[in-house]
Amino acid sequence: MSLVIFWTSLFDMPLLVLARKGGLHYDAHNSAPISGPRENEGVVMARRKKIYEGKAKILYEGPEHGTLVQYFKDDATAFNAEKKAVIEGKGVLNNRLSEFFMTGLTQIGIPTHFIKRLNMREQLIRQVEIVPLEIIVRNLAAGSMAKRLGLEEGTALPRPIVEFSYKDDALGDPLVPEEYIIAFGWATQQDMDDIVSLALRVNDWMSGVMFGVGIKLVDFKIEVGRVWDNEFPRLILADEISPDSCRLWDIESGQKLDKDVFRRDLGNLTDAYTEVAKRLGVLPSNVTHRPSKPTLIN
Ligand code: 5GP
C-alpha cells in the first residue's frame, strides 16, 4: 500500500487516499492500462493511475481495491469518432444525470456500479469486468434501426426490442445475434437471460420517469459488467446512462433532447441536456447554462 495525494477537480482540496498498488484488472475492451500523471490544460493535476481513456470518460484507479473513479469529459464524438467536438459543460451534466438514473435504478433493486458522486465531473464506481456488448433497447424506430428497416423515425414498435452490438470501435460496433455472443463466449445463455431482463426493467423505469417530465424514451444503450461476490459472478449495470446514450424526444413538440442534436447539427447540445436536467429536478428550473457553466443542485 502507498499513500497518494491527489487533487479533486471540484474544490481544489487535497484528498488523501490510500491507493493499492497493482491488483487492478479493468477489462476495457481494446484498451491497455495507461499510467502516468493526469494533465489538464497543460497543468499536471495529480499523480494517480489512469486505467482507461474512452471517447467521453476516463477511468482512474479508485481509493480502495475494487473501485475506480469515473471522470466525465466534455468531448463529444459521433459516427465512430469521425465527428468530434468539445462541448463545454457536457461532462458535468452527464455526471449528474448518470448519478440520477443510477441512483433511481438502485432504489428499485437494479444493481449498478455507481457508489457515489465525488464532485462535478467524477463519480466513484465499482470495478467490473465489462461484457463487450452494447445493449440497446428500442421503444420507437429511430437511428440505425429506422435506416436498416426503412422505417419512418418515430414508428411505434409492437413491443420493446432488445438488440446487441459487439463493442469494437475498429469494426464500428457491429450488430450481433445472441447466437454469436454465446458461441464466441462473450456471455453465457444465463447471462443473456439476465441481461435482457435487466434491460427491460431499466426501460420500464426510465420510460416512466421520462414520461413524467414530458419526454419520450425512444431508445437507449447500456453496458453491463461482471463482479465477483464470494466467488459467485453477478452482472451489474455499468458505464453511464445519460443523453449521450439515449434518444429523448419532447412529447409535445418532438424536439430532440439527446446526442442527435450534435450528430445531426440540430442546435446547442448543452441547452438540450440542460433542459433534461431541469425537468428531472437535477438543475434549478430558472438556470440557463450561458454564459457560465451549469449550476448544479447538490
Ligand atoms: P443507433 O443504433 O440507432 O445508432 O443507437 C441506438 C441507441 O443507442 C441511441 O440512443 C444511441 O445514442 C445509443 N448508442 C448506440 N451506440 C452508442 C455508442 O457507441 N455510445 C453511446 N454513448 N450511445 C450509443
Describe the structure.
This protein is of the alpha+beta class. The chain has a single domain (50-280), classed as D-amino Acid Aminotransferase, Chain A, domain 1 (2-Layer Sandwich), CATH 3.30.470. 23% of the residues lie in helices and 34% in strands. The protein has six helices and 18 strands. It has helices at residues 90-107, 143-149, 178-183, 189-212, 260-263, 269-279, and strands spanning 2-7, 14-19, 38-40, 43-46, 50-53, 57-61, 67-72, 75-78, 83-86, 114-117, 122-126, 129-130, 133-140, 156-166, 175-176, 215-229, 232-238, 246-250. The strands form five sheets. Strands 12, 13, 14, 15, 16, 17 and 18 form a seven-stranded antiparallel sheet that branches. Strands 5-6-7-11-10 form a five-stranded antiparallel sheet. Bound molecules: guanosine-5'-monophosphate. Residues 134, 136, 142-145, 173, 219-221, 244-247, 259 line the site of guanosine-5'-monophosphate.
Shape: globular
Bound molecules: guanosine-5'-monophosphate
Mean pLDDT across all residues, rounded?
A: 86
CATH fold annotation? D-amino Acid Aminotransferase, Chain A, domain 1
Count of alpha and pi helical runs: 6
Q: Biggest β-sheet, characterized?
A: 7 strands, antiparallel
SSE topology string: EEEEEEEEEHEEEEHEEHHEEEHH
Percent in strands = 25-35%
Number of strands: 18
Measure the end-to-end span: 33 Å
| CATH superfamily heading | ATP-grasp fold, B domain
Low-confidence stretches: 1-44
Helical/strand content category: alpha+beta
Which CATH top level class fits?
A: Alpha Beta
- Compute the gyration radius: what is it? 19 Å
The helix fraction, in percent, is 10-25%
CATH architecture: 2-Layer Sandwich
Count of discrete domains: 1
